[in-house]
Design a protein that fits this description.
single chain, alpha/beta, Rossmann fold, Pseudouridine synthase, six-stranded mixed beta sheet, 10 helices, binds adenosine-5'-triphosphate, Motility-assoc_ABC_GldA, ABC-2 type transport system ATP-binding protein, transport
Length: about 300
Amino acid sequence: MSIEVNNLVKNYGEQKAVNGISFKVNKGEIVGFLGPNGAGKSTTMKMITGYLQPSGGEALVCNIKVNDQSTETKQKIGYLPESNALYYDMYVREYLAFIAEVHQIENQKSKIEHVIEQVGLTPEAHKKIAQLSKGYKQRVGLAAALIHDPEVLILDEPTSGLDPNQIVEIRNVIKELGKNKTVLFSSHIMQEVQALCERVIIINKGNIVADDQLSHLVKNIHSGSVTLEIKEEIDESLFNQIQNISRVNRTTWNFKTDNPEQLKKQLLQICVEKNLNILSLTSDTNNLEDVFRSLTA
Ligand SMILES: Nc1ncnc2c1ncn2[C@@H]1O[C@H](COP(=O)(O)OP(=O)(O)OP(=O)(O)O)[C@@H](O)[C@H]1O
């Protein structure tokens, strides 16, 4: 198991920022860690990377307990914190050499060139960090997280604050990295998770509210409801083949369904067969944001 979190708790004074959460990430998975602002994403990631001591529970990386043997787990983890703190006065290669030295890496020169290439930093690699755009600063952060060739990458909102082009490019870099590494990345954008991974863990107010394959959540996305308004007052038994019906008023009916379009056809057929006058027949389909909102409201 690449990442294992067991009943992890973090209290800041009276506030429970992380409320006893558990999840696992398998080797080679890219998993999105999703939640609204203040949900506890960064706090959880800091505990997994050993930068913050849990108030309870434990985190394991590559089957090693993080809080007991932080140095050992730090070799296994590449971490891009939310506030990607860089030394702005340093040149890109100078900074990466400094990070490589911290990790006591051998063959530093070739490793630095390799990560520069890996994150698409080559055209800007001759500059001082202060001169780089936000997207390229983020690439420096990614390169620094990668230089010791960790098995696990923990990326805290890696595309936050970037323009749409840079977002797509950084996502592509992450996708590429995910081919050889386990990646846990945080975001508060459902579409971001959809673009990058198959599995999503959603956290809200310190609790996990979903841990599922995206395809299962997407199934819910296509569900929704159909509303039928007819002139005549009829009995519910007319719809006896259909489930999840609620009567809105005397002549209006609402149906929850996995397939609104199919149900509309079925209702149309019933109404035609029974000579009923349809005043309106409308459907609402949930979208990704609805699913996220329903889980985190
Ligand atoms: N050092 C701290 N001291 C006190 N409270 C903190 C501290 N760090 C975080 N918190 C609180 O813990 C809760 C979780 O914060 P955290 O930063 O983990 O959320 P997040 O999901 O990463 O949010 P965002 O998407 O805004 O970055 C928040 O209510 C936050 O105010």
